[in-house]
């Protein structure tokens, strides 16, 4: 039987399972009752089965270290993270509100730019963003939807308040892990899931497929949809193959497509087949060598011409990076007020832009309390965790910042909530975040009830990214 007395709440931190020592939150009661009836040997067997299932199914990710790609099995914790129905309802409303405003911002910033003219956002901030693409100016996207797929990173502070840490609006990854985590948990706890009335996440591929069909610029009964991948050496290739298989669409690389007469075609054994919708997992810079990086072999020459002509839909829209730039992030609450005339439901983490001289000086004086990030990095790369950095590391980082202050933001260190993890035969608290996935189609925004809970597996660590040693766990949203 598992020893619950070994579970020690981290001070000044919101714990997802315990209100205080021995004071259990109601949503975890069924799980704890189940664990009390399981032997350590049984739980170890479940943990081993999960590892075998991940390995046999090739559920991997790639860590890039010193220029070498190292493929690893994605670490998985068998204890689910539980979210109540009322918590989820609030999260869902907050994300929908946020995405509506961000989508309106993208339409505006690539057309009339009212938000700049009204001095809500500084023009210099937008024009200095490397992901603001002039090639998207006055380009009409189908149904005025830019953000078809979003992965919004949420964290909880020590009072339980949800904050948005990042908006991932370009080619957000990780949804395949959300789906596989649920499938594996079904194998580990087949009776517990219905007993706890856990809502399903398995509809994600069918909702996405339905949206992709509806975005076809051609009025045909069976539009051709493809998933464009950079290929098998990409860190998220497992996800590309999984989603293509689950939706029943062709997985293609740039060399499988060509453009003729401003239309996109796929090469097949029976000849060329016109493509209507491209769910692309290739970054903007590599998508069309005639417009962006001329050395790219991952994209399709002439694709932007077909896109501008309205002959193909690209999911997500090109140029979305201006909306999830970490320096623009601090203006999202202002976007919500400006476009929707509403107060933001989900809070931003307080953010300092180091392009601002006063804010930069404040951050330099308080680096030991800050997390400092590059505005256009992801995966936890290029970060400075002030509380864990030496004076020498902070001084070296200051020199990097001074080369291009616009390229950095700082945020106060937020404790991140903890959730129970099964570690070496005992339950231990580990830091977690949550990435729910939102799908924006012509009929509105859908969010499957769950998401990817990422876990900082190292004791005391605040970094949950898989590339930095993090793992994941299944996310249960209760129906009542």
TrEMBL record:
Pfam families xref list: CP_ATPgrasp_2
Circularly permuted ATP-grasp type domain mapped to chain residues: 80-456
InterPro entries linked: ATP-dep_Glu-Cys_Ligase-2, CP_ATPgrasp_2, UCP005522
Superkingdom: Bacteria
Protein name: Circularly permuted ATP-grasp type 2 domain-containing protein
Species this chain originates from: Pedobacter ginsengisoli
């Amino acid at each position: 039987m598992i020893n619950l007395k070994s579970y020690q709440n981290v001070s000044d931190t919101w714990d997802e399972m315990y209100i205080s020592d021995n004071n259990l939150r109601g949503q975890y009661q069924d799980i704890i009752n189940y664990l009390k009836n399981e032997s350590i040997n049984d739980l170890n067997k479940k943990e081993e089965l999960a590892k075998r299932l991940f390995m046999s199914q090739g559920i991997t990710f790639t860590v890039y270290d010193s220029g070498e790609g190292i493929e690893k099995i994605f670490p998985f914790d068998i204890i689910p993270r539980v979210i109540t129905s009322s918590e989820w309802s609030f999260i869902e409303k907050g994300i929908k509100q946020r995405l509506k405003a961000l989508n309106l911002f993208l339409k505006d910033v690539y057309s009339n730019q009212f938000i700049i003219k009204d001095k809500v956002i500084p023009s210099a901030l937008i024009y200095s963003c490397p992901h603001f693409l002039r090639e998207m100016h006055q380009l009409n996207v189908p149904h005025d939807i830019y953000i078809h797929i979003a992965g919004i990173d949420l964290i909880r502070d020590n009072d339980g308040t949800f904050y948005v840490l990042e908006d991932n609006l370009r080619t957000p990854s990780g949804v395949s892990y959300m789906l596989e985590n649920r499938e594996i948990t079904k194998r580990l706890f087949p009776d517990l899931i219905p007993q706890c009335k856990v809502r399903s996440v398995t509809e994600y591929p069918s909702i996405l497929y339905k949206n992709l069909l509806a975005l076809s610029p051609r009025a045909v009964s069976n539009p051709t949809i493809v998933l464009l991948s950079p290929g098998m050496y990409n860190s998220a290739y497992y996800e590309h193959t999984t989603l293509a298989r689950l939706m029943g669409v062709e997985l293609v690389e740039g060399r499988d497509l060509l453009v003729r007469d401003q239309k996109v075609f796929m090469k097949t054994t029976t000849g060329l087949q016109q493509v209507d919708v491209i769910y692309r997992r290739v970054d903007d810079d590599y998508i069309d060598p005639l417009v962006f990086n001329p050395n790219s072999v991952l994209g399709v020459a002439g694709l932007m011409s077909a896109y501008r002509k309205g002959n193909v839909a690209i999911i997500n829209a090109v140029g979305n990076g201006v909306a999830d730039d970490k320096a623009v992030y601090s203006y999202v609450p202002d976007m919500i007020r400006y476009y929707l005339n509403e107060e933001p439901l989900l809070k931003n983490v307080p953010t300092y832009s180091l392009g601002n001289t006063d804010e930069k000086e404040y951050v330099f004086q308080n680096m030991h309390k800050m997390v400092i990030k590059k505005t256009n990095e992801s995966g936890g790369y290029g970060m400075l965790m002030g509380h864990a950095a030496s004076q020498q590391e902070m001084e070296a980082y200051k020199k990097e910042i001074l080369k291009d202050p616009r390229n950095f933001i700082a945020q106060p260190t937020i404790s991140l909530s903890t959730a129970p993890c099964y570690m070496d035969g005992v339950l231990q608290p580990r830091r977690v975040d949550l990435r729910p996935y939102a799908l924006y189609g012509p009929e509105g925004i859908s969010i499957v009830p769950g998401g990817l809970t990422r876990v900082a597996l190292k004791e005391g660590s605040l970094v949950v990214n898989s590339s930095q040693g993090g793992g994941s766990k299944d996310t249960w949203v209760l129906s009542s």
